[in-house]
Write a structure and sequence with these properties.
The structure holds two protein chains of two kinds. Chain A is mainly alpha-helical. Chain A has four helices and two strands. By secondary structure, chain B is an alpha+beta fold. Helices cover 55% and strands 15% of the residues of chain B. Chain B is built from 14 helices and eleven strands. The radius of gyration of chain B is 31 Å and the shape is elongated. Chain B starts with a helix and ends with a helix. Classes of the chains: A mainly alpha, B alpha+beta. Chains A and B meet through helix 2 and helix 3 of A and helix 1 and helix 2 of B.
Chain lengths: 110, 431
């Protein structure tokens, strides 16, 4: 991984959430996913700010959906990982696993 | 459920035009879920928390607005600087002085008064001293300290230290070095340990024991040249060879440093105190650690009983002597506490005066014309809702920020970490 491509902790959380959620990923679901899994309080502002940063790095792409088919239905800004983002996430998680104690590499995952 | 209006307005303002609809939409969708699960009031509170904790990240990363404003202010600042260089320099200098002085004094206050003492369980550490009926404060008699230390249900330990200088031989020329004479248990009372080597033991203070010393990290590096195999080597102090048994950690602040100008280079164990020695020799500063759950007041009551007993047993030396204790954190800087408070207040006033001066500069003949230009420009841009704020920011704060903060950082770097690195002469001057 080239210098400057490392992921900050929260960026890693957000990208992992995106990988899990797939097509269902947008601000609210990402926020809930991180909050539920990590147990830490997450603000929607932090999620959007991080997504914006990841978008500038080319790791995620946005897609605005049509409004939901109910009265006053809202449009959603869906987000997905780009191939570069997917690769960066894989490398970051591999690196993290190699650093964890008692784990020698991706093959040695407990 | 309808989102709280004010909170929604806050999010809309912070998120910027592009992002706001989606952020608000997501929040509204989740608000309904929270309201169904936890009730309307909880949902309202949840929404407010989201709005408040979203403020900082949204504000920082709203890219269009932040960059546009930054560019605008930077351009206006440069123009102002080119048109009125003298005025700009005066503003920069004024704010730099104000910010720098404030930062320097605050770093001292922070290190001396706000941060906890750099020892283990600082809340249980107490300072102990003797005083006469006229409240004149005395250092402690070693023999009395032995009696005080017998209150082992009150004190986990009582220790003493005193500062002296000794002549170090072995270099190009003999050199006086600051030495702390410490009781063998001082480090264990403070809850610190040498980074390399071992702590003092009771045997080191016994009569006829091999002379030993622990050196400071600074002394080891600068005076001894940081030899890796220092343990067991000897230093010659006042003609006595002492084996080095340990090196204190790099950031260690000896207690003596709170009261004396220079940091101790070497620590030497005092011979173990005996109740048989003269009680009139009051030579040491004392520090102790309370047992868990013991209060300062109850410890004081116990000590009063001991002093009453000692006054009867040794009337020549102890008749008018009382003992007092106080939390160590309150006692290490009693002299500077008031002075620092006054100085901090004074430098805060200096900043206020600096700001007033800047306003005067800006409202003066040269600054006024510049102000009017900025106000009219702000009106033309019509995006800044508070033109005078924009003007003040661009005219003063933005331009002053870099050199002002640089000066402030310089002052802060000189004075922090305090008091380890700062010159204690400065400290005494402040006092």
């Amino acid at each position: 991984m080239a210098k400057g491509q490392y992921l900050a902790e929260f960026e890693l959380y957000v990208m992992s959430a995106l990988a899990r959620l797939g097509d269902e990923a947008y601000g609210m679901t990402v926020r809930r996913e991180i909050e539920t899994r990590s147990g830490r309080a997450v603000s929607i502002g932090a999620v959007y700010a991080t997504l914006e940063r990841l978008s500038l790095k080319g790791y995620v792409k946005f897609r605005v959906s049509d409004p939901t088919p109910v009265q006053g239905g809202r449009a959603r800004k869906h987000v997905r990982l780009t191939p570069l983002g997917r690769r960066t996430l894989d490398e970051a998680t591999d690196m993290l696993l190699r650093m964890l104690p008692d784990v020698t590499g991706p093959e040695g995952v407990r | 459920m309808t989102p709280p209006r004010l909170a929604a307005w806050l999010v809309r303002r912070l998120a910027g035009r592009e992002q706001a609809p989606y952020v608000l939409s997501d929040l509204a969708e989740e608000l309904d879920l929270v309201a169904r699960a936890r009730g309307r009031n909880a949902a309202r509170r949840w929404y407010w928390r989201q709005a408040i904790f979203s403020a900082a990240p949204l504000l920082v990363t709203a890219p269009d607005r932040a960059q546009r404003l930054a560019r605008l202010h930077m351009r206006d600042s440069l123009r102002f600087f080119v048109r009125a260089p003298l005025l700009s320099s005066m503003i920069v200098l004024t704010l730099a002085l104000g910010i720098g002085a404030n930062t320097a004094v605050f770093s001292v206050v922070d290190a001396l008064l706000l941060r906890p003492l750099p020892y283990s369980d600082p809340d249980r550490l107490i300072s102990l001293w003797e005083h006469r009926r006229d409240n004149s404060r005395l250092t402690v008699s070693p023999a009395n300290l032995v009696d005080y230390a017998e209150l082992d249900r009150t004190f986990m330990g009582l220790a003493g230290y005193t500062r002296t200088t000794q002549v170090l031989a072995g270099g190009l020329a003999p050199e006086e070095v600051p030495v702390d004479l410490v009781t063998w248990n001082l480090w264990s009372v403070l809850g610190v340990r040498p980074a390399i080597g071992r702590d003092f033991r009771r045997e080191d203070a016994a009569p006829g024991a091999e002379p030993v010393a622990i050196v400071s990290d600074g002394f080891w590096r600068q005076r001894l040249g940081a030899p890796p195999a220092i343990l067991g080597q000897t230093v010659v102090l006042d003609g006595s060879r002492r084996a080095v048994i340990g090196i204190m950690p790099a950031g260690f602040t000896p207690l003596s440093q709170y009261t004396t100008p220079t940091p101790a280079a070497v620590f030497v164990p005092t011979p173990e105190f005996s109740p048989a020695t003269s009680r009139g020799d009051r030579t040491i500063r004392a520090v102790g650690k309370l047992q868990s759950g013991v209060t300062v007041a109850s410890a004081q009551r116990e000590l009063d009983q001991v002093t009453a007993r000692l006054a009867k047993a040794f009337p020549e030396t102890n008749r008018d002597v009382q003992v007092a204790i106080a939390p160590l954190a309150d006692d290490v800087a009693p002299v500077v506490r008031t002075s620092l408070g006054v100085i901090l207040g004074a430098v805060a006033l200096v900043v206020l005066i600096a700001c007033a001066n800047v306003i005067c500069f800006l409202c003066g003949p040269r600054g006024g014309s510049a102000m009017s230009r900025f106000v009219s420009r702000s009106g033309r841009h019509a995006r800044t809702s508070f033109p005078s704020a924009s003007c003040v920011v661009s005219c003063s704060a933005l331009r002053a920020a870099s050199p002002g903060l640089a000066a402030a950082s310089g002052c802060a770097m000189c004075s922090s970490p305090w008091p380890r690195r700062a010159s204690s002469r400065t400290w005494l001057r402040l006092a």
